[in-house]
């Protein structure tokens, strides 16, 4: 299908461009680390202590969210740079393909950063995050965050305020993702029964379905002049 | 007997407002197939806006645009294959190489013979040697040439050039003139905008002057020399130009 | 200069003003006291006549912004955008009212300035969402683009309301507040006062909306005149 091939082409293009400079990836990773450092000071977290287990899920997802915002910003600011977005708009490409391509590439960058951050987090705080089920939570949460973030980033990249506006718009709208992801992570760490964690996963799944659907219907209006 | 062919570009009553400012007011223009039209006008006349609307990047506020007989409404996607735009921005990814840039756009245009086309346009623009260097490292003139290569990649029937001589040194400008000469001799329809009378006049078949969002004058190139054009321009816009 | 007299709007304003004053009386004095233990608790309970109607209006306002946004995307007509903007501004202001009245209630009722209960938390997030809406509008200069972006964000923002509601409620049922809201049942007189206030606030919203829309339309006219000079 031509549509899918174009989406993949956009993802590959972003990955290839990023691999050449690795700027965004390093920035995202360093930011995630810094967040953890600050949390350590803010909450006086002793490795393996009780407070760590309480704070860890929140700290983790704050780190992911900040890194995510960074990645989302760059996704479209990069396209504005040499007018590249117009190059895409000139081509016979469906606007929603641009949305999905950008969403997937940003999502992949977020996942890469998260994959690196998790072991570091485990080492820093002595919290065992190597739970296979956590992968599900991270995947669902990242998908949702990237889904809503790509739609909003496409808009904010075109405004006067640019990068500054994205977190202001995204964080309240994506609050369900953060709430659900944090609670699900906490549930896994506390060893709660699957039945107690499932509702949070349902919230994530609902968000993951609804927001790309909204983006699918409205992205045209965001890109056209 | 001449067959009546639909014009390449047909603009009718085209208006575009940005808020309360009118960039274009009731523009009527026809460009026949294979014709080279030079559109002159001072800064702010609306040249870029007009080109962007024809390229389907911007929607008009009123009026219609038909490209190759197709209305540029919702179904603009298919027509885009036939349009190539060379604008102020290079429309290229700085971190990728010319090869990678062109391959990406080839995919976006669903080109069947991508590798062959890429090699051909790179050759045509004299960039084969630098095809694997990131665009960031190329000079302005080379980026301009690559931009043209990108516009020609999908072999469009219509080429739109927005002030292509801007910022080029003499050597690059010469190269551009040669390229435009080749393009003019081909069957492509070309619409070029510029505020530089001499450059625009060289290769065109017809000329027009856009002022304050309206076509103030249009006519054949034949019988038009630089002085006459300058006078006309001054008359219409109330300014001089170089 | 012709002076437009919108008699409908004037009538609505007068009616809503009268009802609001009546509502004020009912809330502060007219309605019977709640059967609560403390004096301050009893007085503070009266705030539900303001707090909940304000929250309702906030929600209504955001729905109107959502619907007007959809209307704009389909018609590209400025009047939809005006409605969306006006309603969002009023909604944000009312949401702020919810937060403040919630805080005023919390202090005498539970001794704290804020509680992270379902409704207040949701209201806080909604307030932030719509403050973001207004900020977004402030950063886009081209009116057509501003209207489009605002409409898209308005849709995204409104859809986030139910999801936020579910997430926050789920959070609160798993971790109930240590002190729940002391809810006595509402007697019939209190019900009457409550619904009267609800209607009064809704009319007040409608009047404010009408005025704000009128103001924006006049602003458009001034802009058009300026441009023509």
Features:
heterotrimer; B: 242 residues; alpha/beta; Rossmann fold; 6-stranded mixed β-sheet; 4-stranded antiparallel β-sheet; 8 helices; C: 229 residues; mainly alpha; 7 helices; 81% helix; globular
Provide a brief overview of the structure.
Chain A is mostly helical.
Task: List the topology elements.
The complex is a heterotrimer of chains A (225), B (242) and C (229).
Chain A: H1 2-21, H2 23-43, H3 50-81, H4 84-90, H5 95-125, H6 132-156, H7 165-173, H8 175-189, H9 194-223
Helix pairs in contact in A: 1-5, 2-3, 2-5, 3-5, 3-6, 3-7, 3-8, 5-6, 5-9, 6-7, 6-8, 6-9, 8-9
Chain B: E1 9-18, E2 21-31, E3 36-40, H1 47-54, E4 62-67, E5 70-71, H2 76-79, E6 83-86, H3 98-108, H4 114-124, H5 140-152, E7 158-162, H6 170-185, E8 189-194, H7 197-201, E9 206-211, E10 214-220, H8 226-237
Parallel strand pairs in B: 3-8, 3-9, 6-7, 7-8
Antiparallel strand pairs in B: 1-2, 1-4, 4-5, 9-10
Helix pairs in contact in B: 3-4, 4-5
Chain C: H1 7-30, H2 39-45, H3 48-75, H4 78-110, H5 118-138, H6 143-174, H7 188-228
Helix pairs in contact in C: 1-7, 2-4, 3-4, 3-6, 3-7, 4-5, 4-6, 4-7, 5-6
Task: Identify the CATH homologous superfamily of chain B.
Answer: P-loop containing nucleotide triphosphate hydrolases
For the record, the count of structural domains of chain B works out to 1
In DSSP terms (H or I, runs of 4 or more residues), the helix count of chain C works out at 7
Q: In CATH's first tier, which class of chain B applies? A: Alpha Beta
Number of strands of chain B: 10
For the biggest β-sheet of chain B, the strand order reads 6-7-8-3-9-10
| Mean pLDDT score of chain B | 86
The chain-level structural class of chain B is alpha/beta
Query: Can you tell me the number of structural domains of chain C?
Result: 1
Shape of chain B: globular
Q: Ranges of chain B with pLDDT <50 over ≥5 residues?
A: none
Average pLDDT taken over every residue of chain C:
84
User: By helix and strand content of chain C, what is the structural category?
Assistant: mainly alpha
Number of strand segments of chain C: 0
Proportion in helices of chain B: 25-40%
Oligomer: heterotrimer
Give the CA-CA distance, first to last residue of chain B. Answer: 42 Å
């Amino acid at each position: 299908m031509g549509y899918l091939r174009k989406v993949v082409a956009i993802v590959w293009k972003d990955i290839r461009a990023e691999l050449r400079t690795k700027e965004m990836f390093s920035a995202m990773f360093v930011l995630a680390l810094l967040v953890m450092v600050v949390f350590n000071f803010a909450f006086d977290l002793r490795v393996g202590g009780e407070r760590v287990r309480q704070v860890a899920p929140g700290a983790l997802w704050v780190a992911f969210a900040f890194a995510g915002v960074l990645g989302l910003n760059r996704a479209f600011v990069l396209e504005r740079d040499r007018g590249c977005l117009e190059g895409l708009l000139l081509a016979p490409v469906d606007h929603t393909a641009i949305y999905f391509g950008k969403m997937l590439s940003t999502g992949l960058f977020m996942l890469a950063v998260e994959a690196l951050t998790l072991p570091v987090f485990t080492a820093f705080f002595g919290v065992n995050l190597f739970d296979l089920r956590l992968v599900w939570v991270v995947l669902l949460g990242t998908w949702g965050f990237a889904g809503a973030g790509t739609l909003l980033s496409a808009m904010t990249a075109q405004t006067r305020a640019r990068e500054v506006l994205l977190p202001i718009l995204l964080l309240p709208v994506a609050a369900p993702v953060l709430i659900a992801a944090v609670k699900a992570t906490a549930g896994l760490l506390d060893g709660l029964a699957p039945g107690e964690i499932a509702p949070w996963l349902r919230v994530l799944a609902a968000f993951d379905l609804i927001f790309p659907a909204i983006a699918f219907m409205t992205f045209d209006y965001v890109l056209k002049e | 007997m001449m067959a009546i062919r639909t014009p390449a570009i047909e603009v009718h009553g085209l208006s575009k407002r940005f808020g309360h400012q009118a960039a274009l007011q009731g523009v009527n223009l026809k460009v026949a197939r294979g014709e080279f039209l030079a559109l002159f006008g001072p800064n702010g006349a609306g040249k870029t806006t007009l080109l962007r609307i024809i390229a389907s990047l911007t929607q008009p506020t009123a009026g219609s645009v038909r490209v190759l007989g197709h209305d540029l409404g919702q179904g603009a996607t298919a027509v885009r294959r036939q349009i190539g735009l060379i604008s102020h921005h290079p429309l290229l990814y700085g971190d990728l190489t010319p090869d990678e840039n062109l391959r990406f756009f080839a995919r976006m245009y669903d080109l069947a013979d991508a590798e062959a086309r890429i090699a051909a346009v790179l050759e045509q623009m004299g960039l084969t040697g630098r095809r694997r260097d990131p665009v960031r490292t190329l000079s302005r003139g080379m980026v301009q040439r690559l931009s043209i290569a990108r516009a020609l990649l999908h072999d469009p029937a219509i080429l739109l050039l927005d002030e292509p001589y801007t910022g080029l040194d003499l050597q690059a400008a010469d190269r551009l003139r040669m390229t435009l000469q080749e393009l003019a001799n081909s069957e492509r329809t070309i619409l070029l905008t510029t505020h530089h009378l001499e450059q625009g006049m060289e290769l065109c078949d017809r000329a027009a002057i856009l002022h304050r969002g309206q076509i103030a004058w249009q006519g054949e190139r034949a019988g038009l020399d630089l002085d006459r054009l300058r006078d006309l321009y001054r008359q219409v816009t109330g300014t001089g130009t170089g | 200069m012709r002076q437009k007299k919108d008699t409908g709007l004037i009538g609505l304003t007068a009616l809503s003003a009268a009802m609001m004053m009546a509502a004020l009386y009912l809330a502060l004095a007219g309605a019977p006291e709640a059967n609560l233990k403390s004096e301050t608790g009893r007085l503070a309970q009266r705030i539900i006549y303001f707090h909940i109607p304000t929250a309702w209006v906030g929600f209504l306002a955001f729905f109107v912004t959502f619907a007007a946004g959809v209307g704009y995307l389909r018609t590209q007509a400025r009047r939809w955008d005006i409605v969306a903007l006006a309603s969002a501004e009023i909604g944000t202001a009312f949401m702020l009212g919810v937060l403040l009245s919630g805080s005023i209630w919390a202090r005498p009722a539970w001794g704290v300035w804020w509680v992270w209960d379902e409704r207040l938390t949701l209201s806080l997030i909604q307030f932030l969402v719509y403050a973001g809406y207004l900020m977004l509008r402030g950063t886009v200069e081209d009116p057509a683009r501003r209207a489009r972006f605002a409409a898209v964000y308005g849709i995204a923002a409104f859809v986030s309301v139910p999801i936020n509601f579910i997430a926050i409620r789920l959070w609160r049922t798993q971790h109930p507040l240590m002190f729940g809201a002391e809810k006595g049942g509402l007697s019939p007189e209190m019900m009457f006062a409550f619904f009267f206030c609800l209607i009064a606030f809704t009319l007040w919203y409608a009047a404010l909306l009408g005025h704000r829309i009128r103001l924006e339309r006049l602003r458009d006219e001034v802009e058009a005149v300026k441009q023509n000079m």
